[in-house]
Amino acid sequence: MSAIVSARALTKVYEGGFEALKGVDLDIEEGEILALLGPNGAGKTTLISTICGMVTPSGGSVTVGGHDIDAGYRQARKLIGLVPQEINLEPFEKVMNTIRFSRGLFGYGPDDAYLEKILRQLSLWDKKDARVVELSGGMKRRVLIAKALSHEPRILFLDEPTAGVDVELRKDMWDVVRGLQSDGVTIILTTHYIEEAEAIADRVGVISDGKILLVQDKDELMRQLGQKELRIELQTPVPHVPDDLKEFDLTRADDGCALVYTYDTGSDRTGITRLISALSAAGLVLKDVSTHQSSLEEIFVGLVGEKS
C-alpha cells in the first residue's frame, strides 16, 4: 500500500513555548485503519488538527493525497473528513438538512442518493427528518460521521469517536468503521479505549510527549512485545522460590500458592519443559497451570512508561 498522508519533521510550538509536536514523522497507508494511542496531552488532537489544516505547524511538512497542506490546502482538505471529539451540531435542524449543508460547504452539488446511502450505512435513515435535539448521544455521534462523509472524502479522522458511548453502541460503531474501510476509506482514529485499537486497527501508532514512539502492524507488535505468563498453581504453598529454580526468575504469589513464569512467545525455546522438570526435581507438586497473554493495553503502558 502507498502512503495517502505523509508528515515529515512536523513540529508545533504554541504561544508560551509549549511544544505539542516534536519532529513527527508519520506515513498513513491508503485503505488502512490506524489507531493513534497516547495519554492525555500526548499530541494526538494537535497532530490530527495540523494534518486537517486547522492548526498551523511551526515546522516540517504534510502532504495529503500528494497535496501539500499549505500550498494545496483546498485540494488536501477536500480529501479529508473530520469527526471531532465535541458534539457541535445545530440542535433544531433536521438530520438530512445538516448533512446537505456540510456537503455544500465543500462545493459539491446536491446528491440525495449518496446521502441516503451514508445515512442507511450509519443506521440514521429513519431519523433523516428528526431534529438533532431529539437524538440520543450515540445518534448525534453518527450524525457527525455522516457530516464528515458528506463530501465523499478518501480519508476519515475520528478523534475519540466513542467517548461517552456505552459498550454496546461502541461495538456498533466499530462495525460502521469496518464498513467504511471496505468502501475504500482510510481511517485514522484516536482513542482512550485500547480495546478499540485491538479490535479494529490494522496498525497502531503510539504518541507520547509530542513524539511518535512507534507505528507498527498491530499483530506484529503484539507478537514482538507481548509477553506470556505461565501461572503454576501448587498443591502446597511455598514460603519462597526454591534456590534450585532461581534461574527461571519466577515470581511467587503473595499467598505462596502459585509461581509465575514469564516467557517470550517469539523465542525458539520457551524453557517451559525444563521448568516443569525442575519443579518436579525440587519436590513441588503441581495443582494446575494456566497462561495469560499480554494485552495491547499492557504493551502500551509499558512503552509509554519506558519512554517517559
From TrEMBL:
User: PROSITE patterns annotated for this entry?
Assistant: ABC_TRANSPORTER_1, ABC_TRANSPORTER_2
SUPFAM superfamilies in the record, alphabetically? P-loop containing nucleoside triphosphate hydrolases
Sorted alphabetically, which SMART domains does this protein's record hold? AAA (SM00382)
- Domain ABC transporter, residue spans: 5-234
Query: What protein name is recorded for this chain?
Result: Multidrug ABC transporter ATP-binding protein
Its taxonomic placement starts with: Bacteria, Pseudomonadati, Pseudomonadota, Alphaproteobacteria, Rhodobacterales
- What InterPro entries does the entry give? AAA+_ATPase (IPR003593), ABC_transporter-like_ATP-bd (IPR003439), ABC_transporter-like_CS (IPR017871), ABC_transporter_ATP-binding (IPR050763), P-loop_NTPase (IPR027417)
Q: Where does this protein come from, organism-wise?
A: Litoreibacter roseus
Q: Does the keyword Nucleotide-binding apply?
A: yes
Tell me the CDD domains matching this sequence. ABC_DR_subfamily_A
Q: Which GO terms describe its molecular function?
A: ATP binding; ATP hydrolysis activity
Keywords carried by this UniProt record:
ATP-binding, Nucleotide-binding, Transport
